[in-house]
Amino acid sequence: MKAADVFIAGIVLAVVMLLIIPLSTSALDVFLVINITVSIFILITTLYIKDPLEFSILPTILLIVTLFRLALNVASTKLILGNGGEAGSVIATFGNFVTRGNLVVGFIVFIVIVAIQFIVITKGSERVSEVAARFTLDAMPGKQMAIDADLNTGAIDEAAARKRREDIQREADFYGAMDGASKFIKGDAIIGIIIMLINLIGGLVIGVTMGGMQITDALSIYAVATVGDGLVGQIPALLVSTSTGIMVTRSTSQDSFGVSVSKQLFDKPYVMIISAAIIAIISLIPGFPKIPAALVAVSLAFFGYRSISKTKKKEEKSTEDKAKELAKEKRKPENMTNLLQVEPIEMEFGYGIIPMVDANLGGDLLERVVMIRRQCALEMGIIVPSIRLRDNVQLGTNEYVLKIKGNEIARGEVMIDHFLAINIAGAKETISGIETTDPAFNMPALWITKNQREKAELLGYTTIDPPSVIATHLTELIKRYGHELLNRQQVQTLLDALKTQQPALVDEVYPKMFSLGDIQKVLMNLLREGIPIRDMATIVETLADYGNLTKDTDLLTEYVRQNLKRLITKRFITDGRASVITLDPRLEQLILERSKQNEAGPFVAMDPAQLQSMLRSLKNQIEKINNQGKTPVVLTSPLVRRKFRRLVEQVASDLTVLSYGEVEQSAEIHAEGVVAVQA
């Protein structure tokens, strides 16, 4: 246990024991001085902190200090009533200094101080603490979303986001605790009045009945002690109450309270000069004290003029510094590194889409982007980099552009306050709207007003709000271009995650068999055809099995695909049934015969006429399947699959091409057509 913890525990225990243990007058004097010192220390501390969280222990300190002050009140009451009004030098000094032979004045001063603390400072601090606690709790969701937005856009890293979340939680706890601690101070003010009455009435009763004093003598002795005891307790309480008020009324600043006052109150010279002129005019009123007014006016005018001079000097120096800095910048070569950086993925949008992005305006697009990254990680197994969102005044009002590595890959346009209606269910009745195309799936759609939404949904249309349109488009593009977002660092991250579970497997494959680049190529090949890489264990195991046989990443990808056949079947053959397009055996043989190899990799040297014939046949079969409302899937032999896929990817990039070895035996296959080539 640390010495500081033991020391604090001892102090708290000692404070509690003061409620029971009787004190001598000299010991009470020492504790009263300590009480005043601690109160002053707390007040000065609150003036010097920059952020309320720097003094987050204040609520607990308020409780301990209040308990300490109450313990001293109990001890002083014992001495006043049991020691003939003699309660030490501190109480006597305060009582004699305030009353100065006039008990009425002393009581009035005491009541005024108590009223100031109870009605003005304590009441105000309590109300501000209550409102601050409520507003802090209400603002927490918005602050959390802002942190997620900054993290998503790359403005902060994970460590900074974690710290900001902790600060938000600590801030909420602090203001909630201050709301409760203000009740301690309020109760302390009330108990001060009760103790004053007990000391006065009890002292008069004891002095007259038990001490045989005259009522005037008893009143003189016990009244002075009562006023002194009240003041020596209420003045520290007033200091602590003031500290509480300063803490809860301050906003977060980069400077201390004194520096902030100097900057914000006395950094406006013309305000001081105008105030000096007004005071000078007021001093002309007959009977108004002219000398004090003149001194104040002259002082304000002097400091205002001095501030103007300082401001001019600062501006001149700033101008000179800027000129020197520009001269230095011209002399030294320009740093072009920052200009060469390219964002992995970004979205630019017109100013009409800003309300969808800005959380303060009710937009939730940033939150949706966070969910998109999480969804892609769960579905595809890829780590999507932070998506940079920025406005672009060169775009249309409601237009947006999606870029990967600085290159535009897609753009779209939405209509604010409208809904996108898509006739997916094949509704026969039409509705009026602005014709458009769904940007994510290129399906015919309509922009309809909010009033038409209910009718459209009753007719069978699917309606989508503009933020969902953008989010869906972004999701599909990430899935389509996920292979371009996969870099070596992400591959290393995936291997590190797998290594925590299967270290022997990873050590066997990397770096002994394959480099990061080789593994990256295999993963990119899978992602390019829409196959998730979440099952890294199976992928790496396949590389371990075939790594000694071949280093051809394209061939290794085929082996991986066959070991992922359960996943592939489930992904591309829905409900266990598939209407497929097969290849004519002569076409497969032709592809194998025309396969060549060069430095760039394998390719098929097919005659142009034969290639055009094959593509026409493929197009006809695809249209036939599409007309049936089904998704076309081409099924080939394992040796031909990747070669055929490369032949047709330029004209049918989204076409699913599978081999017989990638389909589960339980799947029901129906051949709907054959791709052939004319001899």
From TrEMBL:
Annotated TM spans: 6-23, 30-49, 55-72, 103-121, 189-213, 219-248, 269-285
UniProt entry tagged with the keyword Acetylation: no
Membrane topology term: Multi-pass membrane protein
Record keywords: Bacterial flagellum biogenesis, Bacterial flagellum protein export, Cell membrane, Cell projection, Cilium, Flagellum, Membrane, Protein transport, Transmembrane, Transmembrane helix, Transport
Function: Required for formation of the rod structure of the flagellar apparatus. Together with FliI and FliH, may constitute the export apparatus of flagellin.
Family, similarity comment: Belongs to the FHIPEP (flagella/HR/invasion proteins export pore) family.
Name of protein: Flagellar biosynthesis protein FlhA
Organism: Papillibacter cinnamivorans DSM 12816
Gene: flhA
